[in-house]
Amino acid sequence: MAMAALRRESRRFVPFVSSPNPINAFRSTIAPTEEQVGLGVRSISTQVVRNRMKSVKNIQKITKAMKMVAASKLRAIQVRAENSRGLWQPFTALLGDTPSVNVKKNVIVTISSDKGLCGGINSTSVKISRALHKLNSGPDTECKYVILGEKGKAQLIRDSKKDIELIMTELQKNFLNYTQVSVVADDILKNVEFDALRIVFNKFASVVSFLPTTATVLSPEIVERESEAGGKIGDLDSYEIEGGETKSEVLQNLAEFQFSCVMFNAVLENACSEQGARMSAMDSSSRNAGDMLDRLTLTYNRTRQASITTELIEIISGASALEG
Amino acid sequence: MASTAAVPFWRSAGMTYITYSNICANLVRNCLKEPYKSEAISREKVHFSVSKWVDGKPQKPTIRSDTPEV
Question: Coiled coil: which residue ranges (chain B) (predicted)?
């Protein structure tokens, strides 16, 4: 009676163990194929599964550590990013932000990260930049890219090689500071001809959410044209300006300083979003590794159990044959 | 009054307002007393690499850095 029960058990296990069809997606890679097992070998080696479990465990350790690192970096940079918002807000109050301005020479400044493994923040900023490029390039207007960061470069090189003007990388080797960003801004101002700069970056909202944002900085001539046309920029006349500079000089200084301030904020916000995104990406990947480990453990135990059962059946049937 | 006279000078020397303000900021930083001075100066490090692209081809990247390569 007991033997019959066992035999039924084994029959249930046999197709599970030696079936070439994968039951789970990952089984296909770990279940040894029939050639590996060879003829006449009834039990399956659990070596493959054990190795796989070890590697998954190691990956999980690494992703957990990366998450911790990102979390501590995020805390430091978040304060700075939030403080730096005070730099561009007065400019927007004074000069306004005009994303819809229509000018001849557009330059898109795409801000991305140097390192990967941080979710989709680089592809979102690249996507927004492409959309802006499409929107602003026409028969009589031209549109160029200035790219900050290794990852945006890798993505934009593929389809818009011709439109790349300047690429800047290794920004985050030292801690981000204003002097550095202002030198970057200075280099952009000196090397690129523009009527309007459109800065694309990810604005940090919370650890899990960041908004792709564009900030527009106009060149002094365009600012002057706009201010003559009235609107918000026209309010500049109501300010009392010290010194004997003419209005165009003041506007030029202001536009340059605005650009460096907006860049500073954008770079910080993007770095902050990068760490946040990396944190959540690493969190979910260590969770996935945990899930995978659970499934592997289950498979491992089942395989082991099945081989034990087979051996038991062999012993019992041998013994009963001797008795009979 | 000094700024009134200075504007055309630094502008005609090919500087932008950003360079000008950075030089000014550096001067102010140098006026700090010692423990704060070196701290403030060490905070403002510049390091990045720039490469200009012409006709879809990258030119040789130049590294802008104020710390010597190790």
Answer: none
